[in-house]
Amino acid sequence: MDFNGSDTLPGPRAEDQLPHTAQSAAKIVIVGGFGVGKTTMVGSVSEITPLTTEETMTQAGIGVDDNFGSASKTATTVAMDFGRISITEQLVLYLFGTPGQQRFWFLWNGLFEGALGAVVLVDTRRLEVSFDVMGRLEERGVPFVVAVNSFPDAPRYALDELRTALDLTPDIPIIECDARRRASSRDVLMTLMRFLHSLAMTGSRT
Ligand SMILES: Nc1nc2c(ncn2[C@@H]2O[C@H](COP(=O)(O)OP(=O)(O)O)[C@@H](O)[C@H]2O)c(=O)[nH]1
Ligand SMILES: [Mg+2]
């Protein structure tokens, strides 16, 4: 980056300014296994240019990151994705896409701090990855919904079959999505917001 010899950082861009009507903000995390579509989802739904820390996969990741089913993927998020979406004129969500790879779990404690809820993105070719992620959310008492990202070559199951396979209790919402589509990703977030609202109404947390 060229700072023209100045040691000051560029100021915020106009598109990054919060609407003046915004009154409350919530932190939402988007978690899931490697290559499941977290960066894609944050990118498709964010109203600001998302920040993404990606690095080209190196030898260091080979054999460590389970690459099955994502052979064409050459970049992986090492830190996180960050985006923002206004749900209403008053409510703004800050989105944090977090790596599911085991070697980045040390980042998780901080990333979950203050999170209102989570979206667990699931790839039906690698359901087993989701168990660890969901277990960690449960440990930390972060409520979540499950979004099944429909890849064309992934086996398709009925949602209640997936609910059973993932061992989800009946109250946890599970929906299909296409993380590349803004409307679909937005639906996922709205499902989470409705779920959080219903938990607040009943006074319970998962
Ligand atoms: N067909 C299809 N491809 C997707 C979808 N979401 C993501 N992808 C592709 O899957 C690859 C991995 O997605 P990425 O967002 O980088 O995964 P991440 O590791 O979870 O951040 C990319 O090449 C995306 O273009 C989806 O809903 N459908
Ligand atoms: Mg990513």
Automatic annotation (TrEMBL):
GO molecular function, one term: GTP binding
Domain of life where this protein originates: Bacteria
Keywords, ordered alphabetically: GTP-binding, Hydrolase, Nucleotide-binding
InterPro entries: Gliding_Motility_GTPase, Gpn, P-loop_NTPase
Cited Pfam families: ATP_bind_1
Recorded family membership: Belongs to the GPN-loop GTPase family.
Database matches in PANTHER family: ATP/GTP-BINDING PROTEIN-RELATED (PTHR42708), GLIDING MOTILITY PROTEIN MGLA (PTHR42708:SF1)
Protein name: ATP/GTP-binding protein
Organism field: Streptomyces viridochromogenes (strain DSM 40736 / JCM 4977 / BCRC 1201 / Tue 494)
